[in-house]
Amino acid sequence: MDARTLQRIHRVRTAQLNLARADEVRAAAALASETEMTRRIAALVEAVAPAPASTGGYGMAGTALFRERLHRSADAAAFRVEQAEQRMLRAGETSRAAHRDQSAVEKLIDRARREALYREARDLQNAPPQAKKRHDPC
């Protein structure tokens, strides 16, 4: 491959690597957000724990309904955290693959540069010696 093609491939691979890293950062942020949401729901569940109070049957029924909804929300949040973890793993693998691709292109560029230097040095060695013009004193 010529140098222009390798440079173009390198630019594309660099752009892909940057996009993969951005996806990885977004996945990490989503995971942190879902984990925080799960923690807040768990805190709400603990805050609505049944307490021995004389609120009557209606108050207990309302609290039980609210707790049941919170438990469903907690289950859904746990599922979202699990999905966010899977997205994070996939994004990390994509980022590593993009980095490997970019490194391979960089190695190809370095190899092409070394071969060009070697060719140039060999051409200089194989070139006929240049005769120096000697001017005799007149």
TrEMBL record:
Q: Which domain of life does the protein's organism represent?
A: Bacteria
Segments for region (Disordered): 119-138
Write the protein's name: Flagellar FliJ protein
> Which species does the entry assign this protein to?
Sphingomonas metalli
The taxonomy runs: Bacteria, Pseudomonadati, Pseudomonadota, Alphaproteobacteria, Sphingomonadales
